[in-house]
Amino acid sequence: MSSTDSTPARGAEHRTVSRVMAILEVIIASEPEGLRLGELSDAIGAPKSSIHGYARGLVTTGYLREHEGRYLQGPAVSTLLAIGGQQVPVGYHHALEQLSKACDETAILSILVGNSAIIVDLVEPTQTIRASPPMHQRNPLWPVSYGKCFLAFMEPRRRDAYLRRITDNPAEWDRIAEELATVHDTRIGYNRGERNPDLFGVASPILLHGKEVTMAIGLAGPAARMEAQLDRISKSVLEAAELLSNTGARD
Questions:
Q1: CATH assignment of 88-247?
Q2: Cys bridge to 70: 7, 34, 57, 139, which one at CB 3.0-4.6 A?
Q3: Angle, nearest 10°, between helix axes 156-166 and 145-152?
Q4: Which pTM does this prediction carry?
Q5: SS3 of 7, please?
Q6: Mean pLDDT across the stretch 17-30?
Q7: Domain definitions of the chain by residue range
Q8: Which residues form the IclR-ED domain (predicted)?
Q9: Residue 136: enclosing H or E segment and its boundaries?
């Protein structure tokens, strides 16, 4: 078969993979309530007749489960993560515990996945009012603090392509580029209420020799409380990132 003849088949395969992954992501993000077929169809932007077959297949294989007409995350998702070695190493979790204890705010470990940032582990403080961000959900790289760390150390062509997608304003692009240059130099990224005016975030990249920056550690908490001790928090976050960078967080 010629390459021309195979193109439609490859396109169909890509659409199928994209559709299945979109269904999984939307359902996982909807936990614990789950979604009805119509809601899932609206979220994906595809007809129910198309979505239903994929959803039923995912139920059959255990990646989704159906309860009272609602689709929810199935047990196979957790199994897949365990098989794939996605358990957070002890060294990383211990660093989160120490950081949260030192500053009494929510400590976060985030990873870069494509053009998204995903929180894979966190430790909450003793504070009654605290940041409680959802785990295992895709977040935009901009303007979250750990996303800024990923962008600051990203290959320029990839970073610029991302920035062009989020703004077509040259002045805004220049402002973002300038901030990212500062993040790169200082190894500290800030989110000063840019996504939620009531929350602050501070993050620092974990730099492993010879590897792309795909992990960042940080703190998040109420804006008023974080702003009052931002210098101390920044120092603690940077020290935690440097420790993990130097040790590789080996168990």
A1: 3.30.450.40
A2: 34
A3: 140
A4: 0.69
A5: helix
A6: 89
A7: 3-81, 88-247
A8: 68-251
A9: none
